[in-house]
Design a protein that fits this description.
Number of domains: 2
CATH class of the largest domain: Alpha Beta
Structural class: alpha/beta
Strand order of the largest sheet: 3-2-1-4-5-6-11
Bound molecules: uridine-5'-diphosphate-4-deoxy-4-fluoro-alpha-D-galactose
Shape: globular
């Protein structure tokens, strides 16, 4: 299928693009390179542009005869979204709206949307099922939930078939450790710990040790990037017939911040300084997925259920790219 990958130069988008190619699809990357890396995209058409540019979107959809769209182009920092809500609603909601308008205009009806566990806010129970109350506590989560709602109403017109995939903590490197995670500035736990292990930062800070969890630190569900991308392919193929698909994507196993630090120490063989600090605002104590719906309906199986293998892939990428993508 000819697939437009919006945000295809970012961490998840570049892994998705490589997987689409490996599965015989024809991806076209659309990215403004505000966050992504040109060198993370290889051997596929690349359109340098912004989702706010309706004319360019229309031209691109027609020129490449696009049949489906995957949308990864969004801001992803919860804390930043609290400080700058309007920027987040503009980029994550308005631009998604523009993209959907262009798709509607061009008659493209298949849409796979990157959603997030942040739509649940502080969940009533864990593991989280898709039916739980959606009560985002940040503009980031709310902007994503609003896009989901817009898709749902639009799908009722019969002109959109969409999948909203709610990611838990995406991590690891794809392509045998060759397509990795390089944010600037970096805020995600695993790359930060790896940087500490590589001596690139003085320490790793634990944000909060007084949570109601077994060791007092936050518990998250870490899902390997390739497992995540596999679910996108399965969802895309279902959109031939399905109007609306909503899935949680996680392993279902929670690891605490301390456990992640210990795993990086084990995989890297390095010791480094760990500093305990206060809580980071907006962090729920525990987020783990009940992904049984995706397993049952999509036939989704994960290849990386263990954190150690996930961290090994990330460690490989970081040691191969000590300065990131360098572009
Ligand atoms: N953490 C630390 N020290 C750090 C960085 C993170 O202790 O230096 C902790 C956080 O407090 C959190 C855990 O490590 O408890 C994971 O933090 P990340 O920033 O790696 O990931 P989040 O769980 O905050 O965020 C993830 C995605 C976001 C998404 C969010 C939805 O990365 O894009 O889930 O809940 F918005």
């Amino acid at each position: 299928m000819k697939v437009l990958v919006c945000g295809g130069a970012g961490y998840i988008g570049s892994n998705m693009t490589a997987m689409l190619v490996s599965q015989g699809h024809e991806p076209v990357v659309f990215d403004n390179l505000s966050k992504g890396h040109r060198s993370a995209v290889k051997d596929v058409p690349f359109v340098s542009g912004d989702l706010a540019d309706f004319g360019l979107l229309i031209d691109t959809l027609h020129k490449y005869e696009i049949e489906g769209v995957m949308h990864f182009a969004a801001f992803i920092e919860v804390g930043e979204s609290v400080a700058e809500p309007l920027r987040y609603y503009h980029n994550n909601f308005n631009n998604a709206h523009n993209l959907l308008c262009a798709m509607d205009d061009a008659g493209v009806r298949k849409f796979v949307f990157s959603s997030t566990a942040a739509v649940y806010g502080i969940p009533e129970t864990v593991p989280i099922t898709e039916e739980l109350t959606k009560a985002p506590i940040s503009p980031y989560g709310d902007s994503k939930l609003n896009v989901e709602k817009m898709c749902s109403f639009q799908s009722e017109t019969g002109r959109l078939n969409y999948a909203a995939l709610r990611y838990f903590n995406a991590c690891g490197a794809g392509g045998g450790g060759t397509i990795g995670e390089d944010h600037s500035p970096e805020s995600h736990l695993i790359p930060l710990i790896i940087q500490a292990a590589m001596g690139k930062r003085e320490d790793i800070k634990i944000f909060g040790t007084d949570y109601p969890t077994p060791d007092g630190t936050c518990v998250r569900d870490y899902i390997h990037i390739e497992d995540l991308c596999k679910a996108h392919l399965l969802a895309l193929s279902k959109l031939d017939t399905e109007r609306e698909l909503v899935y949680n994507l996680g392993n279902g196993t929670g690891y605490s911040v301390r456990e992640v630090i210990e795993t990086v120490k084990k995989v890297s063989g390095k010791d480094f300084k760990v500093t305990e600090t206060g809580r980071r605002p907006g962090d729920p104590p525990v987020l783990t997925a009940d992904a049984s719906k995706a397993r049952k309906e999509l036939g989704w199986k994960t290849d990386f259920p263990e954190l150690e293998a996930i961290v090994e892939s990330a460690w490989k990428w970081h040691t191969l790219h000590p300065d990131g993508y360098n572009d």
